Amino acid sequence: MSAARRTAALIAVGDELVTGDRTDKNLAWLGKELTQLGWEVKESRLMGDDEGRLVGALEQLMGECQLVITTGGLGPTLDDVTRHAAATAVNKELEADAATVAGLEELWRSRDSEMPAANLRQALIPVGADLLRNEHGTAPGFLVTLGDARLACLPGPPREMRGVATDELFARVREGSAPARRSLYLFGLSESRLADLLGDWMDRDADPQVGVLASTGVLELKLISRSGDLARLEERAAAVREQLSSWIFSEEGGDLAEALVSALLERRISVAVAESCTGGAVAQRLSQIPGVSEALREGLVTYSNDAKAARLGVPSALIEEHGAVSAEVALAMAEGLAASSGANLVGAVTGIAGPGGGSSEKPVGRVHFAVGLDGSFLATERTFPDRGRAYVQAWSTNTLLSLMLQALREGR
Amino acid sequence: MSAARRTAALIAVGDELVTGDRTDKNLAWLGKELTQLGWEVKESRLMGDDEGRLVGALEQLMGECQLVITTGGLGPTLDDVTRHAAATAVNKELEADAATVAGLEELWRSRDSEMPAANLRQALIPVGADLLRNEHGTAPGFLVTLGDARLACLPGPPREMRGVATDELFARVREGSAPARRSLYLFGLSESRLADLLGDWMDRDADPQVGVLASTGVLELKLISRSGDLARLEERAAAVREQLSSWIFSEEGGDLAEALVSALLERRISVAVAESCTGGAVAQRLSQIPGVSEALREGLVTYSNDAKAARLGVPSALIEEHGAVSAEVALAMAEGLAASSGANLVGAVTGIAGPGGGSSEKPVGRVHFAVGLDGSFLATERTFPDRGRAYVQAWSTNTLLSLMLQALREGR
């Protein structure tokens, strides 16, 4: 791994991408693949079918990076401008590739119909370019060199683009291997508290470089080796692991449900959940994991007070005294669920997701949780910021999953 | 709409977007909204957390376009470089916004803990910038002017970005009006069958122009007036409505759960669901709709056969004879749920989501549904293509929601 990695830039071409009428599916895939191939991807662009503007971008990016890849704009119609822009950017004429012309003619002969003249546009590539054969569609791609930089143009439909990139391009542009990295997944810690705890380990030029991605309370802490010093990477990972052990729930992936199900299956422990304000989201998250049917007994969405009483045996008097959103009711839900489902591990949640139903005493965002494992129960309260119903539900869901995982790990 | 529309460019900031570790969800949404607001979006970029490079892009794009919008890179950590790059690009210093500082301090006081120092970075905005308040998170955005060009910096999490853009930004950057349009939402019809039914109304140069967007069986049929001839738009909308009435479920929005809940609340009808293969997704979709607590009695995720028997009274003999995935068991689940929950409208679903559990007789993707309204029940079977567990679950969820809505509308 050299210190100065060679750099790449990507462009997805099409008016419909810029206006949001279609969502690009190529840039993220290509970015990931190129990173794996050892390239440092500097930026990616969505650009309209504007030949002049595209020429300018190609010239700029080929001046800055050693590899530029475009997707799209290689079809037969007049608004497909990529091949003309590419030829201009590398100062070459376009010429028809004989094999591609023959293939197109053969295709139309087999359909017993005359080939529309526009179709021949698809066979044009810059003089001196390498053809990138397209086994998945009619427009081939090409790879052309100007000075120190290479430009690859790939078709736009994701299936064709992936095919041509995998079959034809990647072997020609392999740089080395991706930088070594470790990811640790945490829950229950804020991003800013994490930044304080890690201090200058998070400096932009630290080695390994430490980055954070946050999503509904789950933090992905990424350690990426810049120098290729693997001992240093492992040493830093071990230090992070020690400092943050109370919050780390996985080093495999960031899905709390997956971590919980995998722990349940490993220990052959059955589970059931009773949900009020999350409305089934916890059960749904668990049910997304293949193999969960070995562990998941049932989920009850006891939305109404009647259902809490009828399904879980929560005494109406308890609801009247403490309200449906209370530690007492959360505990009664968990206890009732453990008794009626027979599951070893049970989780219950009741709260105020909003927008209505809040009060000064019990604001929107107030949520009570209870978790039970083999007859031992614990209640927990959280008050999430009132940032909308979906927000409170999503945080409540992750919190219950995390509390259940914690109970399992602590054997409580 | 004038001939020379003013132009905009977008930048989504984050290493994880360029490397494909996370897929950007902001650019397509912003591109669509800005087009609606009368802007011509020239290009969109994904850029890493590289301050120098970002400054260069901002300077270039503010030279070419009248509006540049960034998303992301406004968090509290050192790899959040957007606000510093923006300040450099517009030749301003950063200063702390007093109201934002006060809000952050208040937030941490309410948590009874000391605010991490890193948090204060989030309050920094360029001198002279307009603050764009963020009601959905802690990092505000800002809007700053340099010469003829404006630069808006928005937070990166899609929910926050959309909130700040909608609440604070759009009113300040409205350019004109978008073309008149009508949207109709359909379920149960394939895209190609729809194209056949509509024939040359879907021609690219028809007026109104007709477009289709498909998502898990929901088709959004968009009619966009090209000429501004509103009478013609309404006439075509009426003709489409008549021809496709059996499939249209809404003209307000494409969420089947929202359409169902709104019909339930309007008619004061209660609902309950029993789910096996969808694992709580139907209840979860219903529970996302504000006000649903007036209608939703409960949801049961009867994943195991024991739960189907204990909670819904499905006879074990019936499961043994026909299998848990059968019309008979779906009907028994719906009947048992109607009896035990007392809800007027009930829905049940049992199927094989995969990856395991399929057979030649009952392949992965086979799903049975039953819907009951006031004591009258109907079972329906579907076999979805086996494109993965999440695919089968998502189609099953939309199908049950659609069947329940249909039952309600037909008063069956």
Keyphrases for this structure?
alpha/beta, Maf protein, Molybdenum Cofactor Biosythetic Enzyme, Chain A, homodimer, six-stranded mixed sheet, Alpha-Beta Plaits
Task: Lay out the secondary structure.
Two copies of one chain form a homodimer.
Chain A: E1 7-13, H1 15-18, H2 27-36, E2 40-47, H3 51-64, E3 67-71, H4 82-89, E4 94-96, H5 98-110, E5 124-126, E6 130-132, E7 141-146, E8 149-154, H6 158-169, E9 181-187, H7 191-198, E10 209-215, E11 218-224, H8 230-243, E12 248-250, H9 256-267, E13 271-275, H10 281-287, E14 296-301, H11 305-312, H12 316-322, H13 327-341, E15 345-351, E16 366-373, E17 376-383, H14 389-410
Parallel strand pairs in A: 1-2, 1-3, 3-8, 13-14, 13-15
Antiparallel strand pairs in A: 4-5, 6-7, 7-8, 9-11, 9-12, 10-11, 15-16, 16-17
Structure description:
The structure is a homodimer of 412-residue chains. By secondary structure, the first copy, chain A, is of the alpha/beta class. Chain A folds into three domains: 7-172, Molybdenum Cofactor Biosythetic Enzyme, Chain A; 181-250, Alpha-Beta Plaits; 256-410, Maf protein (Alpha-Beta Complex). Chain A is built from 14 helices and 17 strands. Chain A has a six-stranded mixed sheet with strand order 2-1-3-8-7-6, with helices on both faces. In chain A, strands 14-13-15-16-17 form a five-stranded mixed sheet, sandwiched between helices. In chain A, strands 10-11-9-12 form a four-stranded antiparallel sheet. Chain A starts with 6 loop residues before the first strand and ends with a helix. The interface between A and B is large, with 85 and 86 residues. Strand 14 of chain A pairs antiparallel with strand 14 (296-301) of chain B, so a sheet runs across the interface.
